[in-house]
């Protein structure tokens, strides 16, 4: 087991570069938050308590974190690309496979290095945000104490809310990273796998949006909306909601908006379950991965079936959406038969293309 | 001892290796030869634990190789193409091997490098194909492996380097009793160093014997027939090829024996003169049988 250090060293080399990226992004956001807080204080000194209550709410601490998601996700794409670049090269892949390490060891070390690369910067970010909040709250507590909304303002600015959001964000990041990581084992081409990962993550949102747009519910609208609300929206980073209330000073009405996390326990549970499932699937697929299947885009039959089904469904909806957006205004009415026919054509085209893609490399003529 | 028993391996619909069994004695140098695409590299990769066999088994010292770290740490594997991290320097590769293999000896590596003269600061990607091959051979020999697997190790090497590599291998086998499994297109070299060979054709082992036995059974005969030439000479089971210059017939057989000479004499041969073949010629003639 001593020789595992060599593997860790190799994996940390690619992870270290991305760790630096995550650190820069996180520190950048931390600085941005610091600037916002400082600017809010200036506003307060210039315009008084009213400004402090309306402008200086908890959005400074809570809302910016989901905003990081896009940059973090971009980081995950690059991280996974670098992590698997060597493994996906046939020559280096064979060399790595000839070394005295099992598939599981290589997979777990790689995954741990990846998780570490964003976890350390995230911890730095979290500590920074907590410290900034502590600093700001010493002033804000005094300001809030002279308003009639002290209780509400202190609640929405509570450390519990902030910590919950940070944990939720971390778990969301982790489940996203694990998903992109797992896809590398299911789809053999490095960049192809990343593209399919991105499209797969966007697919549920596209399907739901299309169903709403085309109004094809088949009596399942209620369930569809619950899934959308409880699982999809939180997963897409919309883990906070904005609320607000108005108050009157000198016959003028002011609106205070604030951020809150709805169903925090449930969301934490969902992201945790997704992460655990991700780790389990990575372990299973990593264990069974074979370098001899490197020429096959999707070696696993179940993956091929899911991919073909997904592409067929999305292609059908895409063509139906296109028809409704561009042709229905020209025709003047939505002809149900035509919609069905176009959906069918879209599905058929999607099925043919997906089938071709999924079976790349399945019939292999290489012997040497 | 290495035991490959009824090994088979398919890539999609292609059966790359079909029921191959090889036994390799400890401390021997074993050659695997065959045309391009015959399945040599696949056999070596199964032996190195890179590929998993679909059927049969590969055992080293009685233990399976695939996913077995204890056995794999005793195997050195030199692939036919560059296999290392392109961004690493020679120095970094040495450090990497030091961490991976507890038996790796930097002293041994430096001793080899005193001959090959690789710059430790050079990046792997900047090394020529021959240099990369030297690096791979040096690193794997410095592990002091119990089994060294070499897939076309002399490809890309100049004649001097080829000679040096072969000398290193022979010395190492002599000193440590290491087993070497080697595949190469340069059959003249294999002939000099191999104790036994297996000829692979379309995934099957068609000959498996010591080089001397192989050369003793595949021979070219200079034959002069008396009055009549046997009409069906070309279709005899024992004969691979028949040529003639004037009245002198050149017969290549893969079943040379005194019995065969007797048979020729019974069919009117008045003069039979065996001509020795080297391994390359044996391979070329037997390939006609295969093709």
Fold and architecture overview:
The complex is a heterodimer of chains A (368) and B (291). Chain A has a two-stranded antiparallel ribbon with strand order 1-2. Chain A is flat and about 75 Å long. Chain A has two domains: 2-290, no CATH class; 295-368, no CATH class. Chain A has helices spanning 4-47, 49-55, 59-62, 64-67, 69-88, 90-98, 103-145, 150-156, 159-186, 190-214, 221-235, 264-288, 301-331, 336-358; strands spanning 241-249, 252-260. Chain A has 368 residues and is mostly helical. In chain A, β1 and β2 form a beta hairpin. Chain B is 34% helix and 31% strand. Chain B has helices at residues 40-47, 69-72, 90-100, 106-116, 129-141, 159-176, 187-193, 211-217, 258-266, 279-290, and strands at 2-11, 14-24, 29-34, 55-60, 63-64, 75-78, 147-151, 179-183, 196-201, 204-210, 219-225, 239-245, 248-253, 269-275. In chain B, the strands form three sheets. In chain B, strands 6-7-8-3-9-10 form a six-stranded mixed β-sheet, sandwiched between helices. Chain B has a four-stranded antiparallel β-sheet with strand order 2-1-4-5, covered by helices on one side. A four-stranded antiparallel β-sheet of chain B has the order 12-13-11-14, sandwiched between helices. In chain B, α4 (106-116) packs antiparallel against α5 (129-141). The A-B interface holds A 2-3, 5-7, 9-10, 86, 91-92, 94-95, 97-103, 105, 290-292, 295-296, 361-368 and B 9, 11-14, 16, 36-42, 45, 48-52, 67, 69-70, 72-73, 75, 77, 79, 81-86, 96, 99-102, 203.
């Amino acid at each position: 087991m001593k020789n595992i250090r060599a593997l860790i060293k190799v994996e940390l080399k690619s992870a270290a570069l991305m760790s630096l990226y995550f650190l820069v992004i996180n520190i950048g956001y931390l600085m941005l938050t610091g600037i916002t807080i400082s600017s809010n204080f200036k506003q307060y000194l210039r315009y008084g308590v009213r400004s402090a209550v309306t402008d200086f709410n908890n959005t400074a601490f809570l809302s910016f974190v989901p905003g990081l998601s896009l940059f973090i996700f971009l980081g995950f794409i690059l991280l996974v690309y670098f992590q698997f670049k060597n493994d996906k090269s046939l020559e280096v892949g064979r060399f790595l496979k000839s070394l005295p390490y099992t598939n599981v060891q290589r997979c777990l070390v790689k995954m741990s290095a990846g998780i570490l690369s964003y976890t350390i910067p995230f911890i730095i970010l979290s500590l920074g945000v907590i410290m900034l909040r502590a600093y700001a709250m010493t002033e804000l507590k005094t300001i809030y104490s002279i308003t009639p909304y002290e209780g509400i303002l202190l609640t929405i600015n509570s450390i519990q809310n902030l910590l919950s959001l940070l944990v939720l964000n971390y778990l969301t990041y982790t489940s996203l990273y694990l998903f992109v990581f797992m896809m590398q084992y299911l789809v053999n081409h490095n960049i192809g796998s990343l593209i399919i990962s991105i499209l797969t993550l966007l697919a549920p949102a596209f399907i739901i949006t299309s169903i709403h747009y085309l109004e094809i519910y088949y009596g399942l609208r209620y369930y569809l909306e619950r899934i959308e609300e409880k699982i999809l929206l939180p997963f897409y980073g919309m883990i906070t909601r904005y609320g607000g209330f108005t108050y009157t000073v000198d016959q003028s009405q002011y609106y205070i908006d604030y951020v809150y996390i709805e169903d925090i326990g449930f969301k934490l549970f969902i992201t945790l379950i997704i992460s655990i499932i991700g780790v389990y699937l990575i372990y299973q697929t990593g264990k069974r991965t074979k370098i001899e299947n490197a020429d096959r885009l999707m070696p696993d039959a179940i993956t091929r079936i899911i991919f073909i089904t997904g592409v067929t469904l999305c292609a059908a909806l895409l063509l139906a959406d296109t028809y409704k957006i561009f042709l229905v205004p020209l025709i003047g009415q939505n002809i149900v038969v035509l919609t069905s026919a176009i959906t069918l054509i879209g599905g058929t085209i999607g099925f043919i293309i997906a089938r071709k893609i999924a079976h790349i490399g399945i019939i292999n003529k290489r012997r040497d | 001892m290495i035991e490959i028993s009824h090994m088979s391996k398919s890539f999609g619909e292609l059966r790359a290796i079909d029921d191959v069994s090889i036994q390799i004695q400890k401390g021997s140098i074993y050659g695997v030869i065959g045309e391009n695409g015959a399945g040599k590299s696949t056999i070596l990769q199964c032996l190195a634990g890179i590929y998993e066999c679909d059927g049969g088994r590969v055992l080293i010292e009685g233990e399976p190789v695939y996913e077995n770290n204890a056995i794999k740490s005793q195997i050195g594997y030199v692939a036919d193409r560059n296999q290392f991290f392109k961004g690493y320097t020679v120095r970094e590769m040495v450090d990497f091997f030091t961490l991976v293999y507890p038996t790796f000896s930097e002293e041994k590596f430096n001793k080899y490098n005193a001959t090959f003269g690789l710059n430790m600061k050079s990046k792997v990607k900047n090394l020529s194909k021959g240099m990369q091959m030297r690096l791979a051979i040096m690193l794997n020999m410095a592990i002091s492996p119990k089994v060294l697997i070499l897939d076309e190790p002399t490809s890309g090497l100049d004649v001097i380097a080829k000679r040096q590599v072969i000398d290193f291998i022979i010395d190492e086998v002599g000193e440590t009793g290491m087993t070497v499994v080697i595949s190469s297109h340069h059959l003249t070299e294999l002939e000099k160093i191999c104790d036994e060979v297996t000829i692979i054709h379309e995934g099957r082992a068609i000959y498996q014997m010591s080089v001397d036995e192989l050369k003793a059974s595949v021979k070219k005969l200079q034959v002069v027939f008396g009055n009549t030439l046997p009409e069906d000479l070309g279709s005899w089971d024992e004969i691979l090829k028949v040529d003639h210059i004037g009245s002198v017939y050149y017969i290549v057989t893969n079943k040379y024996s005194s019995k065969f000479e007797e048979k020729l004499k019974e069919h009117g041969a008045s003069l039979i003169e065996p001509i020795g073949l080297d391994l390359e010629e044996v391979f070329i003639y037997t390939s006609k049988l295969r093709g």
